[in-house]
Design goal:
Layout (H helix, E strand, L loop, with lengths): L6 H11 L6 H22 L6 H9 L4
Helix pairs in contact: 1-2
Length: 64
């Protein structure tokens, strides 16, 4: 069973944590980051991961 919040609940919790003078741009960025984190957590729960060594090997192609 997933421990992830629904998008609506996660958004409400995010908005409650933000300062009162937050901009729309700040809110959109925070929502973007939150969505990416939740997507990564879902992928991990589904087993869509690679080992540390595999990640290093894949990145080495780009970081030469």
């Amino acid at each position: 069973m997933s421990t992830l919040s629904s998008p609506k609940q996660a958004t409400l919790q995010l908005v409650e944590r933000l300062e009162d003078d937050v901009t729309f741009e700040d809110i959109i960025y925070e929502l973007y980051v939150l969505e990416k984190i939740q997507r990564g957590m879902k992928d991990a729960e589904a087993g869509h991961v690679v080992s540390h060594d595999e990640a290093k090997q894949r990145l080495s192609r780009w970081l030469k």
